[in-house]
Amino acid sequence: MEKVIEANELTYSYGKNLAVDHISFYVNKGEILGFLGPNGAGKTTTFKMLVGLLKPKEGTAKVLGLDISKEPKKIQRRIGVCFEYTNLYEELSAKENLILFANLFGIKNFNPYELIEKVGLKGKENDLVKTFSKGMKQRLMVARSLVNDPEILFLDEPTQGLDPVSSEEIRNIILEEKNKGKTIFLTTHDMYEADKLSDRVAFINYGKIVALDAPLNLKTKFGKRGLKLKLQKENGEIYEKNIVLDKDDTLENILSTFKQDKVITVHSEEATLEDIFIKITGRGLKE
Q1: Which is it for strands 66-67 and 58-63: parallel, antiparallel or unpaired?
Q2: Which of 135, 149, 191, 267 is geometrically suited to a Cys-Cys bond with 166, CB 3.0 to 4.6 A?
Q3: Please, which pLDDT band fits residue 279 given cuts at 50, 70 and 90?
Q4: Closest of 106, 108, 102 to residue 116, by C-alpha
């Protein structure tokens, strides 16, 4: 597979604070890599190095085969970037914001309406951005990142602080872009988002990558699978029972449970990425 992002011993420090500590990873073409970790873990610093806003103190990063430290402008013409905090022109309309960026990219005959409709802002194209809600601004940020039809999308906490409806709309847009063959580098501390969207996830903690694999592989390796049952005794008393799978006596335990009392409901359970992150690092994703 073609590697379109390659980081080798990538390092950055703010003074004496080592924010990113000699990390190495790659992202394949057409893949979504979820960069998962709590605030302050090094996600955004890594993000900024990959898009050319920070120069690595040590190590290298290649994007689309080009060294980001040496050829940032060439790379930036071919990528789309959506930051965690909106940096739109508030006194311009949604349409004018997109046209401005199209002009900066040198795109001729740009039509902003398709992108505006794509992100669910149809009918708001002429409204000033300062009148928009946070969710609307974030959707416009995503639209802006697509202006130049980028080969790679860099998304930094794209659904941070949004309501569930706005978050789901942005996730759907991300999946649409993946289905078009786009590569996506996604930073998040939302384990649900990472699990739903990512082909692979990297856990970063205190500047180091502590695990990197497909979500299912991480769950299989570090998590426990189980069944959660709600049962009823002969006297009508209802109780719950948990059965851990993959043990020598699992089948015997399940059969005896079904014979013993009336089974009302059965649900399968698996470890979440949050559970696994806590198991590996000893702290949660929202710390």
Answers
A1: antiparallel
A2: 135
A3: confident
A4: 102
Task: Please state the rounded mean pLDDT for residues 163-172.
Answer: 88
Over 60: is that where the pLDDT of 287 sits? no
Average pLDDT over residues 136-158: 93
pLDDT, mean of residues 24-50: 94
Handedness of CA 61, 30, 160, 195 (dihedral sign): negative
Q: Are 149 and 105 in contact (CB under 8 A)?
A: no
The torsion angles phi and psi of 141, rounded to 5 degrees, stand at -60, -40
Tokens 């990558």 -> residue: 209
